[in-house]
Structures are given as structure tokens and as C-alpha cells.
Amino acid sequence: MWLFRIPDPTNKAPAVLASRTYIPNFQKTIAPMGYLRFRFGTNLYAHASNNGFLASTVDSVPLSPPTFTTDLPASTRVAEGQTAHFEVLAVVDVTNYQWYSNNVALAGANTYSYDVPNVTTNMSGIFKVVAFNAAGSATSANSTLTVVSAFAIFPPVLLWSVAANTLALSNPTNFITSNPSGGTGFPNERTIAYHALSNQLLVVRGPSGAASYPNLRIFCG
Fold it and tell me: What is the SS3 assignment for 212?
């Protein structure tokens, strides 16, 4: 059973004044779900098919404009291509929400949350929402949306680079080999690994053949 206040149904959604739930004890019939009837001014009688009656008194209490118990963060950062999600919770008896982007009302954005799917960098801006009830309205905090590309979030920074060379394998500085003759068996580097504790890059060089074992090296950089 829902009790609404409908002063101007053509202008705004009705305010929910109160609600009460029947405890079902029988399956509903195919008849209408129920009936409401006011009697003696403040008495409200409700009937639900196959589930009995409720008798309530309706008292008038002051209603204040909404307040936000969960507000928007000051900033929202989202990677390009992802979904930007905004969400609030306002009380009491909120009848409607209206979201804005850069102070422009967003059509159809009338619930407690708002999603912007597949964001692009030109969608950055300021978002907010206004909550309404029968007593007035309240505006949320502004949340600045910043859409960044994955490259901007994790930009690679060049630390160093080494070109392959043809120095002798016995040379301790030769840890990236090349084969100028175009033959097989080059390069001799077998793998690389990262040692997180020492922040070192390990390059393992293992020339083929037992005769080359003296040239086996593990280079750290």
C-alpha cells in the first residue's frame, strides 16, 4: 500500500508520503490487487485480495526538502572507453532526480545514479544532480569528470636503450648480440627477467654448445 501526495501531477512526480507492506498468506487472485478508502477524515482502510485488511490513521507531519546522505565526490577520473558512474542517495520522500552536465539538464537522467558509457576525452566536465520532494529541492556537490587516455595514465618513460652489436661474446659489455653475416644461432640472449627487490633487469645469454659455456653470462642493469 502506497500513499502519495499529488498536488500537481502534470508538473512533477508525486511524493511518497508512506508505505506499508502486507504479509502475504495466500496467492493473489486474478481480481484487482486491492482497494483504498478514507473514512472519518484520518482513517485509511486498505484491502488486498485474499490477504485481508489494514486499518491505519494518517497524521500530518512537516516535510523538509531533501538532504544528501551520500553525495558526489569532488572529482571523478575515468579511463577513456570506460563507463563513468555517478551515484547519490537523498532523503526523505524524494520524488525525482535531475542530472546536469556543465549546468545543462540531461534528458532522461532522472534516477539516483547516472552512467556515461564509453567516455571520450571531450566528455570531461562538471556533473551534479538536483533531488526533489514535495517540500522543495536540494543540489548535490559538483563532481568534475576527467577522462584520460590509458597512455596518459601509464606513460612509458625511456630509461635507457642498447643497440645490438657484434662484439666478441667474451666481451663483458656485449649483452645484446647481432649477426651481421645473416647466419643462424644469433642472438644468444635467451630471456629477460625483472628483479623487483633490486629493481634490476636481468638478461641471460647462453651460447649454444658446450665449448661456449665460458661465455655464459647473466647481465644486470
Answer: helix
- The pLDDT, as a whole number, for residue 208 is 60
Q: What is the pLDDT of residues 188-197, one digit of tens each?
A: 676 788 888 8
Q: How many residues does the chain have?
A: 221
State pLDDT tens for residues 126-157.
Answer: 999 999 988 899 999 999 999 988 776 666 77
Same structural domain for residues 125 and 171? Answer: no
Pairing of strands 75-79, 143-148: parallel
Query: Distance between alpha carbon 215 and the CA centroid of its chain, in Å?
Result: 54
User: Which DSSP letter does residue 211 get?
Assistant: G
Q: Considering its fold, how many domains does the chain have in total?
A: 3
Which of residues 153, 182, 201 is at a domain's end? 153
Pick the closest to residue 14 from 138, 136, 133 (CA basis).
Answer: 133
Q: What is the distance between the alpha carbons of residues 54 and 5, in angstroms, rounded to a whole number?
A: 20
Give pTM, 2 decimals.
0.50
Measured in whole angstroms, the distance separating CA 11 from the mean position of its chain's CA atoms is 32
Q: Containing H/E element for 150?
A: helix 150-153
What CA–CA distance (Å, rounded) separates 120 from 134?
Answer: 37
For residue 134 the three cell numbers come to 514535495
